[in-house]
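input
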Amino acid sequence: MKDFAHASFSPEKIEAMTSALQSAIDTLPEPVSSHVIHRLAEAILRAARDGESSQLVLQRLALLELQIGTGD
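output
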């Protein structure tokens, strides 16, 4: 993962990010590739680093980025 070497998160934010990732994965049809999981995780990390802490918002942002992203 790029650009997260110096990021730090509170236990509460880590819990929200973990829940957001699992919820996002659960909405996708199986099988979910590791590449897709990686993209979701990066989107969640980026949004959390930028200050978002809502599990639902993190999930939706990650799914939206997955939907509109190019995969690069």
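quick obs: The mean pLDDT is 90.
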